[in-house]
Write a structure and sequence with these properties.
alpha+beta; two-stranded parallel sheet; about 15% strand
């Protein structure tokens, strides 16, 4: 998805931190050793730190993403539960649409961005658990530089990003193919119909409907749309509603919440993104995610238990709804949660 990123200025780097940044430019993942107690060198988690570096990183990320949008030939395949969720949402959207569109066309229209966004050449069904791998802005990293503690901002089949359509949902909701289908499918159909009603021809209206996804900019989404319309979409029962993530109940700060446990080793469907060499972002350690608060205080909460990260302390990161994760995260050591479903964590 398009992710406008306002730059942040930070203090000048020392000679040693500049060397660290140069090293990071050559590595796909920021796996740095923890500094010695008397080491005063500022941690530089990623080269995308200054405004100039961030602009260049954004350009490189877009180029890298567009270079990986090709969808393999052959039948299109989708997880059985995610496909059922998308079709159900498409039927409702088509029935209430302000222009003439069938449920079949609405399904193909809504799903077309998914393969270019998250397949990266894989013939496996797209995974609802997919986490973005092209972001490396410094604000997404644990300030202490611990490996595996990274806030992937783009999540799920449609890569809902906190800088765009995903600003008011959690990673758990973006992974839930029922929740995200009910959100995204009507949105795409409505944009298509608005363009049609405004006088656009169907091809231009489809392009308008997909404008939020950079992976559609070279025409790949229209190609997928016609493949889906002409050849259909296969249903794969091996990929479930959450793509391998596990719904749980969690107690956090004295309240009970529905939460999701996200462990990339349990991924169902395309798993290219789980390999460190497949992108510039770190692969995160297993984490929990939930929605907390109400009104203007709603926030996304991600928690790494010490047992999952191996860092000896629970770590919680929060993002206020409406905030771009690249600039809006708050990290807290020693604040965990209790997974009341599995009986683990701070119980």
């Amino acid at each position: 998805m398009k992710t406008p990123r306002p730059p942040r200025s930070r203090r000048a780097l020392t000679t040693l931190t500049a060397l660290a940044a140069a090293v990071l430019l050559c590595t796909p993942q920021a796996a740095l050793a923890e500094p010695a107690p008397d080491d005063t060198v500022e941690f530089v988690p990623t080269p995308a730190d200054t405004p100039t570096e961030r602009t260049e990183a954004d350009r490189e990320a877009l180029e890298e993403k567009l270079a990986n949008t090709a969808v393999p030939p052959g039948p299109l395949s989708f997880g059985a539960e995610p496909l059922a969720a998308a079709r159900n949402a498409a039927e409702g959207a088509a029935a209430g649409a302000s222009c003439a569109i069938t449920a079949e066309s609405a399904t193909a229209l809504a799903l077309a961005p998914v393969w270019p966004e998250v397949s990266v050449g894989s013939a496996l069904p797209p995974s609802p658990m997919t986490l973005s791998r092209y972001d490396n802005q410094s604000g997404l990293y644990d300030p202490a530089g611990r490996d595996g503690l990274f806030f992937n901002p783009g999540v799920g089949l449609w890569q809902m990003d906190s800088a765009g359509l995903g600003t008011n949902n959690t990673a758990g909701e973006a992974i839930d193919s029922v929740w995200v289908s009910d959100f995204v499918v009507p949105y795409i159909v409505d944009k298509y119909c608005s363009a049609i009603n405004g006088g656009s021809a169907a091809p231009a209206a489809r392009a308008t409907a997909w404008a939020d996804w950079n992976a559609c900019s070279d025409g790949d989404c229209d190609t997928v749309y016609w493949r889906a319309m002409n050849d259909g979409i296969g249903s794969d029962p091996s990929v479930g509603r959450h793509g391998g993530a596990q719904p749980r109940t969690c107690e956090f700060e004295g309240a009970s919440y529905d939460c999701l446990f996200v462990d990339v080793s349990d991924v169902q469907g395309a798993d290219w993104w789980t390999r460190p060499e497949s992108g510039r972002s770190p692969v995160p350690s297993p984490f929990y995610v939930l929605r907390a608060g109400s009104g203007d205080g709603v926030r996304e909460v991600r928690v790494w238990l010490a047992a999952d990260s191996g860092h000896g302390v629970d770590v919680t990161v929060t993002r206020p709804f409406g905030g771009n994760a690249r600039d809006a995260l708050s990290w807290t050591d020693g604040l965990g949660l209790c997974d009341t479903t599995a009986g683990r964590g701070s119980c």
